[in-house]
Amino acid sequence: HLAIEENASLIGVDGLNTLKKTKNLQIQRNPNLLSVDGFNGLEDAAHLYFNNNDKLIRIDFGSLFSVSNAMVFAENAQLSDVKGFEGVDEVGGFLNIKGNHALKDLGFLSNLTHVTGFVFIEENDGLESVNGLEQLQSVGEYIYVDGNNALLDVGGLKSLETVGADFSVGHNGELQSLDGLESLESVGGFVRVAFN
Questions:
Q1: What is the distance in angstroms between the CA of the first residue and the CA of the last residue of the chain?
Q2: Staple 142 to which of 150, 154, 157, 166, CB 3.0 to 4.6 Å?
Q3: Are strands 12-13 and 2-5 parallel, antiparallel or unpaired?
Q4: What is the pLDDT of residues 42-81, one digit of tens each?
């Protein structure tokens, strides 16, 4: 377990490049942290949490390819540059991307094909597209794409075939099109498109 949290003066994390595996990596509540690029050797993690880092702009991982439980990017208001997750093709638990207002798309997830749990893409005010999820084929539980005020379309979900539970697209004030859902074959719960 590795936690980097509540460090008032910390501006960068760049000294852990030899770490290859960890069960939990939590980087959260570091109010002046600008960048995380010190995990270039990390290949395998069970849980990754990047939460409430008010000034965090950049996350750059080098060789990550396995996330067995959770990947969370939440309430990092300035986060705009995320790299090094392109090797991850499956998240074994859940994916939560919430409150990252400077994030424009999800290009850093370009090889993700399966999420066994749920997917939340919520309240990212600058998110214009879900591009980056073009390879995503299945979500084991539910997927919510809600409250993304700049989102124009869901074209990045063009390969999504199955959702195990509910599928919600709501409260995305600029949403113009549902093009991109042509591959969807099965939803285990409800489908809700509302208040867009």
A1: 40
A2: 166
A3: unpaired
A4: 999 999 999 999 999 999 987 788 899 999 999 999 999 9
Q: Residue 16's pLDDT is what?
A: 85
CA distance 65 to 39: 13
Six token digits for residue 137: 């084929």
- pLDDT digits 0-9 by tens, 149-192: 999 999 999 999 999 999 999 999 999 999 999 999 999 999 99
Find the length of the chain: 196
* Helix, strand, coil abundance in the chain, percent, nearest 5: 5, 40, 60
Amino acid identity for residue 80 in this structure: S
Give dist(CA 157, CA 22) in Å, integer: 30
In angstroms, rounded to a whole number, what is the distance separating the alpha carbons of residues 179 and 148?
17
Query: Residue 109 CA to chain centroid, in angstroms?
Result: 7
Taking a C-beta distance cutoff of 8 angstroms, is the pair 88, 114 a contact? Answer: no
- Quote the pTM value: 0.96
